[in-house]
Write a structure and sequence with these properties.
263 residues; mainly beta; Jelly Rolls
Length: 263
């Protein structure tokens, strides 16, 4: 009888081990599935790159001025609010006071992929961020139709990735989407903005924001590359014609737009 009881105990223990192992596998699979589907992480590209509209390595002009100068065929560039000088990798900002440094490009496009690499140096009392803004001053005056920030520590915006429609004062900023992200000094990052119709998606450092605004889709004739007040470098600025990726699905199909009076 003792032997029979021992056999039963072994069978019950084995059964419990098997059941526990199955539960562990199921929980792990469920966790991995959630991680893959988490909004804003690892989304596929909304746009497929087409013809290159601008391939800019910051070799021309030799000196940036406050007036537009030709750079590549059909495009021109000017410096805004600060000095820009050549660097070993591309171009770097030299800020002294006032508005954040901006490089403004003039050229026509609509559905597009816009990419630029950036890195920054940490400086006491100054902030770091990189911004891509697409606009049309004739169709949408005093505004950036679509803007994305990769914001390290600018207190005027949410930290991380911020997608917005920016109506300049006395207008308001519409924050379309934002997600927390972090950026380290002296490290290169690629900021990518995709514009297809009234949809916009942006990615940097593995974090993606997405949203829709009625003015995202207007024809555009300018791009502003803005950076924070500490020293920033830019390289590999590219603009491509774009078409919708047929396999893409938005990570956030329904978003609530938020208006703010952030300066």
């Amino acid at each position: 009888m003792l032997i029979n009881n021992l056999k039963k105990m072994k069978k019950n223990t084995f059964a419990r081990v098997v059941m526990f192992s199955v539960l562990v596998v199921l929980v792990a699979a469920s966790s991995n599935s959630f991680a893959r589907k988490k909004p804003g992480k690892g989304d596929t590209n909304m746009a497929i790159k087409g013809k290159v509209l601008l391939e800019e390595d910051f070799t021309t002009p030799s000196v940036y001025t406050k007036d537009f100068q030709p750079t590549k065929e059909g495009w021109s560039v000017k410096a805004g609010h600060a000095k820009w000088v050549k660097s070993g990798k591309g171009v770097e900002s030299v800020w002294e006071t006032g508005h954040m440094p901006v490089l403004g490009y003039s050229g026509t496009f609509r559905d597009a992929v816009i990419e630029v690499d950036f890195r920054f140096q940490k400086e006491e009392g100054k902030w770091a961020a990189c911004r891509i803004s697409a606009a049309n001053p004739e169709l949408n005056p005093r505004a950036y139709a679509a803007s994305v920030w990769a914001n390290s520590d600018n207190k005027a915006r949410a930290l991380g990735m911020v997608l917005e429609h920016d109506e300049w004062k006395p207008g308001v900023i519409t924050t379309v989407d934002s997600l927390m992200a972090t950026y380290q000094p002296n490290k290169w990052y690629t900021l990518r903005l995709e514009l297809i119709g009234n949809n916009a998606q942006a990615t940097c450092n593995g974090v993606t924001v997405f949203g829709t605004h009625e003015l995202f889709g207007i024809p555009k004739n300018s791009i502003s590359l803005g950076v924070g007040t500490c020293k920033h470098e830019l390289r590999n600025f590219r603009v491509y014609e774009a078409t919708l990726n047929p396999t893409w699905r938005p990570s956030k199909p329904q978003l609530t737009q938020q208006n703010s009076n952030i300066p």
